Amino acid sequence: MFRLTVLLYFLVYVYLGTLTTFGVAGNKEKLVTVKDKFKLPSDDLMPFVGFGTYKVKGDDLIFKLLDYALAAGYRLIDTAQYYENEESIGQALKVLLPKYNLTRKDIFITTKLLSTKLGEADVYQSIEKSVKNLGYDYVDLFLIHFPGLPSRDNTTNPKNDSVLRDETWQVMVRAVKDGLVRNIGVSNYLVHHLKELLENDHGIKPGVNQLEWHPGYHPAGLLELCKQEGILLQAYGSLGGTGRANVLLKRPEVVKIAEKLKKTPAQILLRWALQQKIGIIPKASSEDRIKQNMDLDFIIPEEDMRALLSFEQKHNSWNSGNIQ
Ligand SMILES: NC(=O)c1ccc[n+]([C@@H]2O[C@H](COP(=O)([O-])OP(=O)(O)OC[C@H]3O[C@@H](n4cnc5c(N)ncnc54)[C@H](OP(=O)(O)O)[C@@H]3O)[C@@H](O)[C@H]2O)c1
Fold this sequence. Notes:
Elements: H1 2-18, E1 20-22, E2 28-30, E3 37-39, E4 45-47, E5 51-52, H2 59-72, E6 76-78, H3 86-99, E7 108-113, H4 123-134, E8 139-144, H5 161-177, E9 181-187, H6 191-200, E10 208-212, H7 222-229, E11 232-236, H8 245-249, H9 252-261, H10 265-274, E12 279-280, H11 287-292, H12 302-307
Helix pairs in contact: 2-3, 3-4, 5-6, 9-10
NADP nicotinamide-adenine-dinucleotide phosphate binds near residues 54, 281, 286 and 292.
């Protein structure tokens, strides 16, 4: 029985490794699996699938959900200064990593700069604080959370957002050189923000752009630019976002494909992104959903991939379109 199970696993592994699928651009591509990793400019390998922790707060809840997530195979944890859960995550990992025979290097932690800190004099200290909160010597990835100050009045920084972004990036480059942070990237950057960052060229390219991305919102040109520049586009809000997921999950087009492929609507939305080599960081609150969101090694046929690309476009989360 044991041998048979091992053989079965081996055959599935070989099968997945040889499968190819057609990307939305029509190119023949190797199937991306949940175990695959993206090579960052530093040569670090970053899992394509991670666990989101927005609105997950409190030591006990964090511990419970990270326990489920590590058991289900997640090795990337996405947090942010804004989520106020870095310390809880750090404490939980100290107990949970040994439980799963893992060490710090087996997991990948992303955190992000509080948006109101953009361009502030204490950005470096703020990175140090995140590292300290998380309880290890470094974070794997540090992101600029938003390309501009979220709101402006007479008391806010008189410099424009473009200058604030550039100054912040230079501090983040210093944090990489000092070993505080292994990789740096951005979030909510549109094409013009990303092009500006690449043109400014401070010696380290962004490894990741984390962005709201799902069939109902996938701004033109960004995925192509990211792929061309070797940047991972990592989707957030793949299920429609915390508090709003039901709208996307109930779309008849999504439900129809889910029924056809005998998967859940959530799996269709997540696989849709992964199949385009887009990273995903779904957040879920039950063991069953956490497992389900990792069970994505199937193929969505090309016609269904295309059908999911044709929704009317509207973002649910932050709007960076008006940030110059
Ligand atoms: N960079 C940014 O500006 C930014 C912005 C937003 C989010 N993020 C990051 O991205 C992560 C993901 O985004 P998100 O949390 O906003 O939204 P999301 O992952 O799109 O959706 C989460 C919602 O979907 C529900 N859900 C999860 N799995 C499900 C399943 N299998 N079936 C049905 N419903 C399911 C969850 O409910 P339950 O929790 O009740 O299970 C929750 O309400 C965040 O946690 C955060 O780490 C980044």
